[in-house]
Design brief:
- It is a single chain.
- With 422 residues, the chain is an alpha+beta fold.
- 28% of the residues lie in helices and 27% in strands.
- The protein is built from twelve helices and 23 strands.
- The protein is globular and about 60 Å long.
- The mean pLDDT is 96.
- Bound molecules: adenosine monophosphate and glycine.
- Glycine (GLY) binds next to loops.
Length: 422
């Protein structure tokens, strides 16, 4: 399809990366984003509609007569945005609400994996304070405790501290009625993003996120402090195993549902020392910041690819991937991942590097412009510096060269992104 009008839902670095990829797609003529950020406003029109207001998004998509809606975050998918859009004949990239339960409920995801024999850690459901000591003693430390709610990465605690484990369990039971205690999986994590519909699937280049706030993977979990792709921990044999043991059975399950899954399935993997993959989590959307390193590696028309999946004909799409390496380094506000200081001025966001095969630039996330046109921070993760190069060390060097040009009072970033692969 040529001359496509696309509506992107969301406001983060992921959505800016999608907007750039779509703006470079020959099939795409115009881009709308709701609500978007200062980065997406340079590529199309931002609309003041919240990413969680399903009715308002459906109205906007109808009014604009868009050819495709691309949904960034999980919350509107769980609330049924794709169901409503499809009812009105508008193609939506993102699963219907039932498919989105793979992320919406960690317990549901575990039950589906168990039914399909997909490798993952064991789980116990705790409903009462009196179970805690016995439950903790069944698994060795560190303990992995997960609330069964959408909590933007904040509903999970991984700790070796028995008191912290007990109190998080107690608090979660009192707010939610139950909590999950999971077996700890050791190894190296990686993210496999799989574009999927009933006709087939395409695995995008595997990436690795850095979830902890501090260097050497220390400190509290965040939404992700940086990423790189391809991740060498996913060797060809690990990839084949993950497809056979994890992606194929899930695809077979989802394609046979009454309403097929159309969108991206994010498979969060743990690869153990023997190269055996198991599932840490499923998400039903693109990862952030994984998207910032994945989209630039897709050389074929992104708009055509997302539309093909939204219409259930991904099998006929022939992707072309770059053989370069990509890296992104997130710059976060003071305080992040706790309460963040926002409303501070940012400079340097237009810095670019174009040197032979190396290119680097900024993906904006929590940013907006005030009436005078000043760029201000408006979220925990403010932007990320992304670089593409023929090899990973050159990409890392270029991403940090961009980061050093940005000013934002009190901001912080990790200095060791991609260290596992260097
Ligand atoms: P989740 O929201 O389920 O992805 O969990 C957030 C992060 O916690 C993951 O990216 C892992 O780093 C860590 N984590 C979650 N579950 C486990 C597990 N079973 N074993 C080890 N680490 C885990
Ligand atoms: N980067 C982790 C996520 O998007 O869930």
């Amino acid at each position: 399809m040529a001359g496509m009008k696309v509506l992107i839902v969301g406001a983060g670095g992921r959505e800016h990366a999608l907007a750039i990829g779509l703006s470079e797609s020959p099939s795409v003529e115009s881009i709308h984003t709701c609500p978007g950020n200062a980065g997406t406003s340079m590529l199309g029109i931002n609309h003041n509609v919240s990413a969680t207001d399903v009715d308002a998004i459906v109205k906007l998509a109808t009014k604009l007569s868009v050819d495709l809606v691309v949904v960034g975050p999980e919350a509107p998918l769980v609330s049924g945005l794709s169901d409503s859009l499809r009812d009105r004949g508008i193609p939506s990239f993102g699963p219907h609400s039932e498919g989105a339960e793979l992320e919406g409920s960690k317990l549901h995801a575990k039950q589906v994996m168990e039914e399909l024999g997909i490798p993952t850690g064991g789980v116990q459901i705790l409903k009462s304070d009196s179970d805690i000591d016995a439950a903790l003693s069944r698994y060795s430390s560190p303990w992995v405790i997960k609330r069964d709610v959408l909590a933007a990465g904040k509903g999970v605690v991984v700790t070796e501290d028995v008191d912290e484990a007990s109190s998080f369990i107690q608090d979660s039971i009192s707010t939610d009625g139950f909590v999950l205690l999971e077996e700890f999986l050791s190894g190296e994590e990686a993210s496999m993003l799989v574009i999927m519909d009933e006709s087939g699937f395409i695995c995008l280049p595997p990436s690795q996120d850095h979830k902890r706030v501090g260097e050497g993977d220390t400190g509290p979990n965040t939404g992700g402090m940086g990423a790189y792709a391809p991740a060498p921990v996913i060797t060809e044999s690990v990839r084949q195993r993950a497809i056979k043991e994890i992606v194929n059975p899930m695809h077979h399950h989802l394609r046979n549902q009454a309403i097929p899954y159309r969108g991206v399935l994010y498979v969060g993997l743990m690869i153990d020392d023997e190269g055996a993959p198991s599932v840490v989590e499923y998400n039903v959307r693109f990862g952030d910041p994984e998207t910032q390193v994945t989209i630039p590696l897709i050389e074929s028309d992104l708009g055509e690819m997302l539309l093909a999946a939204a219409e259930g004909r991904i099998e006929s799409y022939q992707p072309i991937f770059s053989d370069k390496s990509a890296v992104t380094v997130v710059l976060a506000s003071e305080g992040y991942p706790g309460p963040s200081k926002t409303g501070r001025e940012i400079t340097g966001e237009n810095t670019r590097i174009e040197e032979g095969e190396i290119s680097a630039f900024v993906h904006q996330a929590g940013t907006h412009r005030d009436e005078e046109g000043k760029l201000l921070s408006s979220g925990g993760r403010v932007l990320s510096a992304t670089a593409l190069a023929p090899d990973l060390p050159s990409a890392v060097g270029a991403a940090y060269a961009i980061i050093h040009e940005i000013t934002l009072d009190g901001s912080h970033y990790r200095r060791d992104i991609a260290y596992r692969a260097l």
